């Protein structure tokens, strides 16, 4: 993973960008915008005063606000980087202050519920283009961000039919400036795909680490001592932010529950194969899953190291 993005632009794409919520994703965007000169100035907005103080100390923004309505004034790009459950209330707070022609986007891990909660509040003069960078780590907060987080990662945009194509192209250019690759899809399809590739895997990690912690015959210290391999990878994922993931599950209920019921059926089939010594069934599945892992590596989306998503030089 490169430490720096490419050369900065000579002319910024946007005059003034507001980033609302300066955690892992918001601070990573701020770093990348600075490095690549993607905006003339950066406005950081966070309701947490300790976060605002860190943003100031890290020099992540040109102006810092706790009030959303004040902060977005005059901005031509507004990016919501708050937990998905906060997107609707934030859209309501900022609606009356949005400038003519502003692009409003978000980075939420769920799209359908975010669109439903934000859209009713946004004025007709705003271009609303929901987004989701499929890149992250288990860390959170303003110190966790880094400029290359989105490099060579997908960013999914889910614009509604009829949204101004020029605004979509500008936002696409913005994400590409941060090194991301763009894919377009509908919000419901996004939620189905991410339920199986991201949301349910996190639920499984939370569950298995919780189960191990509750075991009576195996002590906590044995779990910690012998968690060198697969279990250790699960603990990384299970260390992810509780607020963010609570909101993801409560806002992508239908797709997640559908994937859990498919998962449960397949797990029951595996249990049956073990019970009845059906080695062929086990071998066939494990061969198929091994080839999926190999095709992910061939696509260049992963290295063989499990901690690819971590901050360079920090972990
Ligand atoms: N962490 C990841 O791996 C990842 C990856 C892609 C997308 N996302 C999405 O990005 C968003 C942010 O995730 P993160 O990991 O950066 O979270 P984070 O916890 O690191 O940061 C969130 C920030 O939002 C602030 N905030 C919360 N409610 C607010 C409000 N009402 N007004 C103003 N500020 C508010 C918090 O104080 C915090 O500083 C989430 O919607 C998440 O689904 C996360
Ligand atoms: O690498 C990680 O730690 C992540 O969990 C990143 C991850 C993912 O599931 O891939 C998590 C949630 C986001 O919405 C996008 C990316």
TrEMBL record:
Keywords: Amino-acid biosynthesis, Aromatic amino acid biosynthesis, NAD, Oxidoreductase, Tyrosine biosynthesis. Pfam families: PDH_C, PDH_N. GO terms for biological process: tyrosine biosynthetic process. The keyword Oxidoreductase applies. Transmembrane segments: none annotated. Residues 15-304 form the Prephenate/arogenate dehydrogenase domain. Pathway: Amino-acid biosynthesis; L-tyrosine biosynthesis; (4-hydroxyphenyl)pyruvate from prephenate (NAD(+) route): step 1/1. Its EC number is 1.3.1.12. NCBIfam families: PRK07502.1. Belongs to the prephenate/arogenate dehydrogenase family. This is prephenate dehydrogenase. It comes from Saliniramus fredricksonii. The lineage of its organism: Bacteria, Pseudomonadati, Pseudomonadota, Alphaproteobacteria, Hyphomicrobiales.
